[in-house]
Amino acid sequence: MSSDFEGYEQDFAVLTAEITGKIARVPRLPPDEKKQMVANVEKQLEEARELLEQMDLEVREIPPQSRGMYSNRMRSYKQEMGKLETDFKRSRIAYSDEVRNELLGDDGNSSENQRAHLLDNTERLERSSRRLEAGYQIAVETEQIGQEMLENLSHDREKIQRARERLRETDANLGKSSRVLTGMLRR
């Protein structure tokens, strides 16, 4: 049993050393690599928790007279695990702050620079809003002009149809007149 425990101890020591090294490297990595590193560390922390559970189960199976020494080791490992998780949380907070600052364009300058940046952005938004309003107004005017043109075209169409109708009537009347005149000339 103690050989299993010692094997778990060695695995835990190697794993915690890897995790510690990775946590220390997180702040210095480029953003894409940071994301991968954070995911990798989370996975390794889960593995370390599982190892601790296995070690705890092994300690419970050890005879009571030898259990004290292993229980002290377990307490120490659990404290180490807690410290690793705390360090990782701090590293993630620093990482998330860095991501937030990157997204917001905050490079850690004074509040005066931030204020100037916000005012500049506000001014841009106002200009964009005015352009959008002007564009909307032009669209409304264009729509009105289009409707007026459609109405004019509709009226023109009606006039053209009436003129065609008169032309047909006139043509028919001319045809009748021509027949009447031809008939008169024959007599």
From TrEMBL:
The keyword Transmembrane applies. Keywords: Coiled coil, Membrane, Protein transport, Transmembrane, Transmembrane helix, Transport. One of its GO terms (molecular function) is SNAP receptor activity. InterPro entries: SNARE, T_SNARE_dom, v-SNARE_N_sf, Vesicle_trsprt_v-SNARE_N. GO terms for cellular component: cytosol; endoplasmic reticulum membrane; ER to Golgi transport vesicle membrane; Golgi apparatus; late endosome membrane; SNARE complex. The keyword Zinc does not apply. Transmembrane segments: none annotated. GO terms for biological process: Golgi to vacuole transport; intra-Golgi vesicle-mediated transport; intracellular protein transport; macroautophagy; retrograde transport, endosome to Golgi; vesicle fusion with Golgi apparatus. Residues 34-61 form a coiled coil. It is a single-pass type IV membrane protein. Residues 117-184 form the T-SNARE coiled-coil homology domain. It is found in: Endomembrane system. Belongs to the VTI1 family. This is Vesicle transport through interaction with t-SNAREs homolog 1A isoform X4. It comes from Vulpes vulpes.
